[in-house]
Amino acid sequence: MWRCPTCGQTFVTRGMPHSCEVLDLDDHFSGSEPNVRATFDALLEVVRRLGPVTVNPTKSRISLQARMRFAAVERPRRRHLNAHLVLTRPIASPRFTRVEFLAPYYHVHHLRLQAPEEVDEELSDWLAEAYEVGLQRHVTDPAWTKVRGPAGAPRSP
Ligand SMILES: [Zn+2]
Asked: How many whole angstroms from 7 Cα to the centroid of ligand 1?
């Protein structure tokens, strides 16, 4: 694990490019309606039940990390959150606005969240799977499902 000497964030890869500008979590939500914060808190509550999690609120996003970062929300909008979670297989669901592939086998699932009720059982299951990826289960467990995407796709840093 590498710890950035400037901001103190930790990364699996040494010298990982990132934003060192760490903001207060509350500042992130200063321009959002209370429901947006409640949605984030519901998400965080689900994730914290899975095990230890580091919350990294930087200038452009709030990322959630086990060993690796496995989920994040972009800087909160007034009425919604743009969230994503990292899986090693693609999941087809109308809830995902797009699924971005990063070689060798990371599938970044983007979704929009507006209300705490949207942090439901289905999303909790996806977050539990992403948390395992955050623990690098896909590295330590040979039986873990890893789906490779198209050749020539951009690589995960
Ligand atoms: Zn840094």
From this structure: 4
70 CA distance to ligand 1 centroid (A)? 18
Nearest by Cα to 8 from 48, 54, 39: 54
Q: What's the CA-to-centroid distance between 122 and ligand 1, angstroms?
A: 34
In a domain, 157, yes or no: no
Q: How many domains does the chain have?
A: 1
Rounded to whole angstroms, the Cα distance separating 62 from 32 reads: 14
Q: Which two tokens stand for residue 90?
A: 């693609």
At 116, which CATH number?
Answer: 3.30.1460
CA of 92 to the centre of ligand 1 (A): 35
Residue whose C-alpha is closest to residue 85's, from 125, 118, 140: 125
Domain containing residue 49: 22-140
* Residue pLDDT tens, the chain, 157 long: 999 999 999 999 899 899 899 888 999 999 999 999 999 999 999 999 999 999 999 989 999 999 999 999 999 999 999 999 999 999 999 999 999 999 889 999 999 999 999 999 999 999 999 999 999 999 999 999 999 988 888 887 7
Q: How far is the CA of 8 from the centre of ligand 1 (A)?
A: 6
